[in-house]
Amino acid sequence: MKKLLLALLLLLIAATAMLYFFPATQLASLRLIEQQRAGLSHQQIRVRDLNIHYYRGGPADGETLVLIHGFAADKDNWLRFSRHLTDRYQVIALDLPGFGDSDRPAGSYDVGTQAERLASILEALGIERAHLLGNSMGGHIAALYAARYPQRTQSLALFDNAGVEAPIKSEFFTLLERGQANPLVVRQAEDFQRLLQFVFVEPPYLPESLKRHLAERSMANREHYEQVFQQLVERYIPLEPELPKIEVPTLLLWGEQDRVLHVSSIEVMRPLLRHSSVAVMPGVGHAPMLERPQESALLYRRFLQGLTP
């Protein structure tokens, strides 16, 4: 009995040490667990000269949901959110070119270019028509796609999307105008905790070893993210002239305490859209699908169910 207890203790110590000293392994394990719980598989496809990674799951004959992440993010943002949708819908969560595991092509990452890349990706996947959902920069891209490809868009959902000039300036833009560093780009380890606090009202719990690993990974991408952000600013495409072209029902969902993009953006978008509905989540920041995955997924699901005659 003592030998068994000792063996179990040694196993526990070894596992703890592995997770502490090998956080990449810990992250991969957590990601795999979340994929399985959401019913998603990690897949990839060659689109022209780019290797694109994505998650896919749910019934193949179900209506297709395409989930598009924001700036400096990736497809993992949708794992817990997707768990509440794959029973009925086919879910595809992409790594946009330049992000996550997908290739980083030379050239531009402005939303217009990315919207055209998105069109090529969906065509390569054989998706003729889909419900689009985007967060932040991903919402800007999704809205532009819906305006350009109305026949290929079944509905549109925008979670705290970029692309409009809000009546009330957000804290993010106020900081940039003062010449302060972009809080969404991690330059040193301590910036990562500040990023979490800036994006979330209640940041999700992360073990310190995993937090350090994510900070290091973000720092390694700093130069790339700074270049992408500069292109987004220099080649900015405003959504105000594009929104009236969107023909499909559109959900505007926002975290009320978003410090990146102010919730008053809704006041600009709603009158410009033909068919819009609004959901504002109190006590939530810039990424509702991460901070409140179940609640935001249920709000989105209710929107989708309302489309059925």
Explain what this protein looks like in three dimensions:
Helix 1 crosses helix 2 (23-38) and helix 7 crosses helix 8 (208-220). The protein has helices at 2-21, 23-38, 79-82, 111-124, 137-148, 171-177, 189-199, 208-220, 222-234, 265-269, 288-291, 293-305, and strands at 40-47, 50-57, 64-68, 90-94, 130-135, 153-159, 250-255, 276-281. Helix content is 43%, strand content 17%. It contains twelve helices and eight strands. It has a single domain (2-305), classed as Alpha/Beta hydrolase fold, catalytic domain (Rossmann fold, 3-Layer(aba) Sandwich). GO terms for molecular function: hydrolase activity.
CATH homologous superfamily title: Alpha/Beta hydrolase fold, catalytic domain
Strand order across the biggest sheet?
A: 1-2-4-3-5-6-7-8
CATH classification, class level: Alpha Beta
Structural class: alpha/beta
Main attributes?
309 residues, alpha/beta, Rossmann fold, eight-stranded mixed β-sheet, 12 helices, 8 strands, 43% helix, 17% strand
